[in-house]
Amino acid sequence: MRQILLNNAGAVVARVPRPLVERGSVLVRVHYSLISVGTEIAPLRSVASQAPDSSAIERSVEYASLAKHYFRASLRDPKKAMDRVAKILRTQTAKLKPARPVPVVPAISGELTWTPSGSDVSLTTGDSGVTLVTDTTPAGYQIMSQAVGVPDGQVPVVRVSGRVDDGAIAIGLLNEAKDKWIGSRTYHQGPFEDTLIFDPQGSRAVTIVVTTAGAAVRSKVTLASVSVGTAPPTIGGLPLSELDVQGWGVGYSAAGEVVAVGDGITDLAAGDLVACAGAGQANHADFINVKRNLVVRVPDGCPISLAASTTVGSIAMQGVRRAQPELGERVCVL
Predict the structure, then answer these.
(1) HSE value, Cβ hemisphere, 13 Å, CA-based, for 167
(2) What is the DSSP string of 145-188?
(3) pLDDT, tens digit (0-9, with 9 covering 90-100), for 156-184
(4) Residue 304 contacts by C-beta under 8 Å, 6 or more apart in sequence?
(5) Residues 6 or more apart from 331 whose CB is under 8 A from it?
(6) 105-237 maps to which CATH number?
(7) pLDDT tens digits, residue range 87-125?
(8) Which of 56, 92, 117, 154 could cross-link 230 (Cys pair, CB 3.0–4.6 Å)?
(9) CA distance linking residue 53 with residue 50, whole number of Å
């Protein structure tokens, strides 16, 4: 999954794990997200310890006073002063040095080979990738890859991209014996780009499988690319997140289509169009997981692009409510 992150150099598009739907939350595929320039760019501005309206002379006096304090302290205990300087240097150097991403080692030499598994599957290869037309078996296996070895202490990392033209499909991993799912993910109509990372649960090999997504209809999908590798697991078993390497998440106003709902939610379902709010939740990303109280259904006739501005509109309305203006009063809008 892609997500827009900010760092001190600007904005980047990073690969991060797709969020999982949680209890009381809604998983949404984002169609539009609103960029709030003032709020989201503010963290890039350097933060000084002085008051923002202090003059250059006042700041110079403050720096001189601080330097005088440390100079006197160094005269009393030179060793402590040197240790303090060394610690400061190590801290600043660590901030400048980016975290090293977890390396992903290719798990096979060459390309994946696909074997049809369904009763009436159409599989063709072209310049755009592998095109699959499924049969009508509900949740039936359609194509399978060769077995891919997973070394001890590693987890499989599968990168997929493509487009679902009709229906829906699911892509998942089977265990070494091919009798148990390690994990799977469903993709509906439209383009997709994702990274599948699942705990191998002790299996020394996995098999990639494309299935129908539960509906007894023909689906058509083009797999533009499928690559598989292995990497050491991290906390949560997700070694491929670039969030800590690239920057921090931004965004708090978005709109899109519900993909799944968590336990306890009965008034929304997959396919509903919703507007979402919340810093740290309604991010600039392909998919977002948002608490139910920060999600509202988009009314009929409202363009989904305009629905992405719901959050900032509600903030303005809340400002009016809190101010409680009366007729004839003078107000200032900032």
Answers:
(1) 23
(2) E--EE--TT-EEEEEEEEEEEES-EEEEEE-TTSSSEEEEEEE-
(3) 989 899 999 998 899 999 999 999 999 88
(4) 31, 32, 255, 256, 273, 298
(5) 323, 325
(6) 2.60.120.260
(7) 665 555 555 455 555 678 888 877 889 999 877 899 998
(8) 154
(9) 8
Q: Where are the domains of the chain?
A: 2-43+250-323, 56-101, 105-237
Neighbours of 275 (CB within 10 A): 29
Q: What are the start-end ranges of the E strands in the chain?
A: 2-7, 10-15, 25-33, 105-106, 114-116, 122-126, 129-133, 141-145, 148-149, 155-166, 169-174, 181-187, 190-197, 205-212, 220-231, 248-249, 253-261, 273-277, 287-291, 295-297
Q: Residue 154: CA atoms inside 13 Å, Cβ hemisphere, count?
A: 21
* Torsions phi, psi for 98 (to 5 deg): -70, 150
pLDDT digits (tens, 9 = 90+) for 202-235: 899 999 999 998 777 889 999 999 999 998 876 5
Counting DSSP H helices and E strands in the chain, the numbers are 6, 20
d(C-alpha 144, C-alpha 170), whole Å: 12
Is the CB of residue 227 less than 8 Å from the CB of residue 158?
yes
Q: Are 289 and 24 in contact (CB under 8 A)?
A: no
**C-alpha count within 13 angstroms, C-beta hemisphere, residue 24:** 3
Alpha carbons 160 and 286: distance in angstroms, whole number:
14
Q: Calculate ∠ Cα 286-287-289, nearest 5°.
A: 155
**Among 284, 219, 221, CA closest to 254:** 284
Q: How many residues does the chain have?
A: 334
Torsion, Cα 206 212 214 216, to 10 degrees, reads -150
Report the half-sphere exposure of 189 (CA within 13 A, side-chain side): 8
CATH class for the domain made up of 2-43+250-323: alpha beta
